[in-house]
Design a protein that fits this description.
This is DUF1275 domain-containing protein. Keywords: Membrane, Transmembrane, Transmembrane helix. InterPro entries: DUF1275 (IPR010699). The chain is mainly alpha-helical and 196 residues long. It has one domain. It is 68% helix and 2% strand. α2 packs antiparallel against α3. The longest helix has 29 residues. The relative contact order is 0.15.
């Protein structure tokens, strides 16, 4: 395969991943009362705007918890994908990408099927905190996995927004450091390259 063909293929894959990310983010934003599952910069903006309300409200459905929750689960999903990429580093990248994107797809299918059960007028029901955030786990883990995978393409590496890119880079570096520490514990005193 020529460099030009590889570049075109990578660009098409990156474009497809961006489309999926935007679509899932839009659906999630509408069904989870303004929660972003891909665009972490949006969540940090919402957190900053609503920070003064932190002690004024005691609701799990206030904007601050709704914005903070996906940041944590997004990073966990990114670390999961990073671990898969690191553990399978000797495999062809297309195989590793297939594994990660299959896991992502399964999470999104679970989101669709489980989520529709709890839809009330187009939004996930607020009757149970566990159900609400339990369903939100699926798309946020999936998008964390997708963005770590997308960064494997040169055309996407620097194309993520500041906060999303920083969190994705952290998840990737943490995974690399964790696998390196497990493989060579005595010769690698650092926990993760993210803390250099």
């Amino acid at each position: 395969m020529t460099d030009r063909t590889t570049s075109l293929r990578d660009s098409l894959v990156a474009l497809s991943l961006a489309w999926v990310g935007g679509f899932v983010d839009g659906v999630s934003f509408l069904t989870f009362y303004g929660m972003f599952v891909t665009f972490m910069s949006g969540n940090t903006t919402i957190m900053g705007v609503h920070l003064p309300e932190l002690f004024a409200t005691h609701s799990w459905f206030a904007p601050l918890p709704i914005a903070a929750f996906p940041i944590v689960t997004y990073v966990i999903g990114g670390i999961g994908a990073g671990l898969i990429w690191e553990i399978a580093a000797s495999w062809p990248s297309s195989r590793v990408m297939g594994i990660v994107l299959t896991a992502e797809s399964l999470l999104l299918v679970l989101f669709a099927f489980v989520g529709q059960t709890f839809l009330v007028e187009g939004k996930i029901s607020e009757q149970s905190v566990m159900v609400f955030f339990g369903i939100a786990v699926f798309p946020t883990l999936a998008m964390g996995m997708q963005n770590v995978t997308a960064r494997k393409f040169k055309s996407v590496r620097d194309g993520l927004t500041f906060v999303t890119g920083t969190l994705t880079g952290f998840a990737e570096s943490f995974s690399e450091g964790l696998v390196a520490a497990i493989r060579q514990p005595s010769s690698n005193p650092r926990c993760s390259p993210a803390f250099r």
